[in-house]
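Reopening this ticket.

The earlier resolution said the output was attached, but the attachment link was broken on my side. Pasting everything inline this time so it's all in one place.
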Amino acid sequence: MAKRGKKYRAGLEKIEADRLYAPKAGFTLLKEIDQTQFDATVDCAFRLGIDPRKADQMLRGAVALPHGIGKSVTVAVVAGGERAEEARAAGADHVGDDDLVEQLQQGDILDEIDSIIATPDMMGKLGRLGKTLGPRGLMPNPKSGTVTMDVGKAVAEIKAGRVEYRSDRNGNVHTVLGKCSFSAEQLVENYAAILEEIIRLRPSAAKGRYIQTVAISASASPSIPLDPSRSKDLLEDEDA
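Inline output:
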């Protein structure tokens, strides 16, 4: 295990052992212990009581964060005709049909793209790129709202701060919540949007405690455990 730096260890010492923090207290502490020289990204990890081997217990979707994620997002739209014009008008960065599919296949622009939207009729052509787009999390999917005829709306939502999420093979959901420059209140409100969506999508087949653990962290900080049972009064400082 790599040796942690002095700043990391100093931050770790400020996290109380065995404490499950109320969301506002947790984000306030996270901002305090972040010592990076840049505007660090804030991440959140949920460990869920689901069986990811079963298709009916997989979670996947997208949610609009009230305060966005604090960065500009590059969006590509695979569509033709009127839909392509709608995408351009909404602010899409790359728009095209067969020509854009060719660019994506060549891989020249993949590193700069954060999200790909496609109309349903283009998915047959994009499907050939599954081994390229899938591992990068870029393959459009109806559940995340990225396979749609309403491409203008999808572009606008993603540009405004909509984030996609999906459970991994261990039943974890990781998502971005914003930047350390956000206020604690803004981070709590973004967290509340994600939490509400995850609770809403609880699989009926999931048994026992659903949200088992929640942890937040910044780009180079230790993680802070939040109280997984706290779903109301999130802006209050007191732990339950």
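Reporter confirms the inline version is readable. The first helix runs from residue 6 to 13. The first strand starts at residue 41 and ends at 48.
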